[in-house]
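Record now logged underneath.
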Amino acid sequence: MAERNRWIALYVLCVGMLMIVLDMTVVNVALPSIQDDLGFSQSSLAWVINAYLIAFGGLLLLSGRFGDIFGRKRMLMSGLAVFTLASLLCGFAQSPEVLVGARFVQGVGGAMTSAVILGMIVTMFPEPREQAKAIGVYAFVASAGGSVGLLAGGILTESINWHWIFFINIPIGIVTALASVRLLPTDEGIGFGDGADVAGAVLITASLMLGVYTIVEPAAKEGWGAATTLVLSGISLALLVAFVVREATARNPLVPLRIFRSRNVAGANAIEALTVSGMFGMFFLGTLYMERVLGYDPLEIGLAFLPATLTMGLMSVRYSERLMMRFGARATVTAGLVLLLGALALFVRAPVDGDYVEHLLPVMLLLGIGAGTSFPGLMTLAMSGATERDAGLASGLVNTTAQVGAALGLAVLATLSATRTDNLIEGGRATASALTSGYHLGFAIGAALVLAALVVAVTVLERLPRPEAAPAGAEPAYSEAG
């Protein structure tokens, strides 16, 4: 594959990933308009988000493995087609039922598309320095796309209408698909070998879908101690255990358990789950703090997050590769987590009458630098044990970890924050003060999650071999775990 075409192909893949990531947050800003236009009840409105999350989070791991089996390019193209057609249905939806159904299908397409992208990047860029730079670009898109979605959602909803947050996906999806046909290398996939592990596929899909549903529905509404939450959590966990037992004994497992033997792969995924839990909850609660306490409109909220997005992009695209080559992935991850911890700790101090420059801008800058420093290294470590045969699986695992971590973090932080606010209001505290105190609790829990991630980074991660140490003609340094 020509050098120039490889980098163009990277940007095509990242545009496809950006389209998927944007869709997770762009809808949040438009929810009030969607509710007024289609007549959603307050309780059913959450399903505009939840239908997407359940399909997306439940099918990521399966989609990644099927990409290895059938071919990652074939999986990507199929996912783009499903996602683009579902976006068209979402845009034309005139009833709550049609929109929720189309959002579920959109989540299926999003999982099929995003699950294989990181695996394709790793195989396209086997040389460590180029791989680090390419992963930096991907990491920026994957981590900063959410804040871009807040800005894009505000602009489209206020300037046109909510339908266009879905219609905008159609030209992007078509152009990405056409460019992918021409630029991306075709891989045949490894095939099913001794047969399809149907039982494994059913178990892991059911476990993840039920787990995500439990997090976003009964846990968020009824609480973590509710009977429904406990029963569904138990069933999801039992299905997961059954899946692990199945994969350990199957002749041709859907997910070979050898991928988890690497301390770097297991540790990086654990760190990602903890970090994303804290960050995603912070984005959500930070948005509510700006809206309900400071009185920002959707466009102002998007602009408020812009410094985080810009610094994240600068670090991910320009400096992350240099830092990893100089200090190693483990050191850059650790340094980035320290900065993220500082950002959340500062957010705990944001007052009722907060000033943007004094109280929010430092948070956004630390957040951007920390995420831009840590996430490329995390993804490098998470893919370090992947071979050509299971790069899609490793890619799907990274995305699954992030998605489940985000859903779990949002549910926990939002629930505990709201409970604290309600208790303070019942005790006679002014609404703005009670809201701020509730958000402070959420930010503090987010900081604790990042602190736990930092502990894992220090105690579990191992140093990757230096690229210079690899003999000529050997496998890339990042293809082997510590």
User: Anything to note?
Assistant: The mean pLDDT is 83.
